[in-house]
Amino acid sequence: MFFLSLIEHKLRFPPADLSLPLHKGIKKFLDGIFLDRVILNLGRCVSIYDIRNIYGGFIHAGEGAPTYTLEFRMVVFRPFT
After folding, report:
1. In angstroms, what CA-CA distances link 47 with 35, 40, 50, 51, 74?
2. Which DSSP letter does residue 75 get?
3. Quick one: signal sequence residues (predicted)?
């Protein structure tokens, strides 16, 4: 069965991708992290459905990349519940 799962994740966004629009760059980065991966007790990530909230954008001392807290929904495949 396919399910929509709500995920909250802290993301350190690379400075090289700051030239892209924020939603598009974050979705591209999330696809690289989660797509076709199995998450324990959740299932296999099929796709990122949507990004619900983006919080933060703080740059911590000694880093050149902003850190965001994301809330997004992901389509997961779970053969057994």
Report:
1. 6, 16, 9, 12, 6
2. E
3. none
Polymer length in residues for the chain: 81
Which tokens in the block code for residue 54? Answer: 């983006």
Q: Are 3 and 80 in contact (CB under 8 A)?
A: no
Task: Find, among 36, 55, 41, 50, the residue nearest to 4 by Cα.
Answer: 50
Q: Rounded distance, CA 77 to CA 3, Å?
A: 6
CA distances to 26, 36, 66, 76 from 5, rounded to whole Å, are 18, 15, 25, 7
Buried b (16+ CB within 10 A) or exposed e, 26-42: bbebbeeebeeeeeeee
Q: What is the pTM (predicted TM-score) of this model?
A: 0.86
